[in-house]
Amino acid sequence: MLEFASLLAPVVATITLEGMISVGIAVVAVLLMLMIFWQLGRQTHTMNSKNLENARKEAEKIVASAQQEAEKILNHAQMDSDVLLKESKVKAKEEVLKAKNEFEDAMSERRKEVQRSEERMVAKEDNIEKKLETIDKRLQEFEEREADLKQRKEKLQELTAELKEKINAQIEVLQRVAGMSSDEARKILMQRLEESMENERGTLIRRYQEENKQHLQEEGQKIMVASMQRYSGDCSYERTTSTIPLPNDDMKGRIIGREGRNIRTIEAATGASLLIDDTPEAVVISCFDPVRREVARQTMERLVADGRIHPSRVEEVVAKVRKEIDNEIQKVGQETVEKLGLSHVRPNIVILLGRLKYRYSFSQNVLMHSIEVSTMMGAIAAQIGLDEQKARRAGLLHDIGKAVDHEVEGSHAAIGADLLKRAGEDPEVINAVAAHHEETEKTSLLAVLVQICDTLSASRPGARSETTELYLHRLEQLEGIGNSFEGVETCYAIQAGRELRVIVLPEKISENAAAVMAREMAEQIEKEMRYPGQIRVSIIRETRSIDYAK
């Protein structure tokens, strides 16, 4: 039976649905007959001839019944296959109809879109034609106006020539009547005109100054004062040298060591110079590099406190102090960046910011100065509509070049701009750093704001100190500018050079001329002098009439 089924398998795989049903029924019938014959064969030995005949009849009945059942199954299968075929045809027609409807809808929508596009194109063409017509009309009007203008120009030239002739005739008449030449009359007229214009100029200057002075001062003061009030910084004073106190003068000998080996080791390890003179119980450390000077200072303090001073101990302490200061520089730089809310600052720039902690300029700590400028810039930028973050960044980094200006040639502004350029900083920030001392042309308001806030931070009371020679020189220069003007009786630089008070001769300088002189004197001071803050110019004109009653 298995072999028979295997032989039927290839045939079954190649026939259609109806053939498969027919073959299946036939196979079932054959299998039933084989099973019956097999059962009969087993019983052959035990059955007699009568039983055999009955069995054959019974088998024939079974076969007939099986054939009828097979025919019924075949009929039902045929009916089912017809129904399935009809349903599939109906579904296929429905799908085709649906696809056809969708295609027609899509084509209809596309036709509508094309029609709308054509309508828009027609409208644009109409609009272009109208514009061309308008342009043609305007061109025609322009040509007509040009022709009219040409005619008017010719008439004007004719009238000008006629007017010149009349003026020359009148000049000749006036010369005969006045008894003077035209040059003499012109000179007198120009002199009177200059006097009139001088008075008019002074009046206008005074009027515009009075109108704008109060408004501009109020607005500027509000912004500046608000930004400065929001920041309160400590004053730091520079010590270009560091003085180390000693417990006694015997310590100087121990610092020098036998044949000077200790002091040579200290200077070689720290890169700073030790000055041991007659100053009692003190040693002076001098170095251009502020970080090295700080390393030398802390090293000397620890060696003096410990008392053990020899070359190996010196090298050990210097290495330890240098490592601690490097960590402190990294920490201070990172804390500064976080304090001001800046992001994406390169690690090398953070280290340079930390080095500014040990750098001073005109007695002002550069790091504190940079933080102060950054804070004021952020406050002002927020009020005038600039990028606050970018303003803070430019203010903090404007003096970054001072961290390495003792190692690299050039001004600190140029060095800082080069460092920031290599660090991929924003171009506006780079220009603000490069231009804050007028070494490069400013390209944005940010550069102007850096210069303003740098001046505010440097000129506030207590921020910086200057030598007596520079202070006296500035006062002399200020008084010299005041005395250089004609009509000045005397002048004084008062309020530590913040005001120039000028007394003029009233018979030579009028009220309007005094206003002009104040403006010109202020402009000359701005041009020739460098000074922190602002200088007030006060012109005093006083007329006294004295008489005696007898």
Q: Descriptors for this entry?
A:
single chain, 550 residues, GMP Synthetase, Chain A, domain 3, 3 domains, three-stranded antiparallel sheet, 7% strand, flat
Description:
- This protein has 550 residues and is mostly helical.
- It folds into three domains: 2-154, no CATH class; 241-459, Orthogonal Bundle (Hypothetical protein af1432); 468-541, GMP Synthetase, Chain A, domain 3 (2-Layer Sandwich).
- It contains 16 helices and eight strands.
- A three-stranded antiparallel β-sheet has the order 1-3-2, covered by helices on one side. Strands 6-7-8 form a three-stranded mixed β-sheet. The protein has a two-stranded antiparallel ribbon with strand order 4-5.
- The longest helix is centred in the first third of the chain and has 130 residues, at 49-178.
Oligomeric grouping of the chains: single chain
In the CATH scheme, the class of the largest domain would be Mainly Alpha
N-to-C CA distance:
169 Å
Q: In which range does the helix fraction lie?
A: over 70%
Largest sheet: 3 strands, antiparallel
CATH fold naming of the largest domain: Hypothetical protein af1432
Examine the secondary-structure arrangement and name the CATH architecture of the largest domain: Orthogonal Bundle
If you compute it from the alpha carbons, what radius of gyration comes out, rounded to the nearest whole angstrom? 54 Å
The fraction of residues in strands falls at: 5-15%
**Unreliable stretches covering 5 or more consecutive residues:** 1-16, 232-238
Shape: flat
Number of domains: 3
Average pLDDT value? 79
- Strand order across the largest sheet: 1-3-2
Write down how many β-strands occur, each being a DSSP E stretch of 2 or more residues: 8
Structural class: mainly alpha
Number of H- or I-type helical stretches: 16
H/E element order: HHHHEHHEEHHHEEHHHHHHEEHE
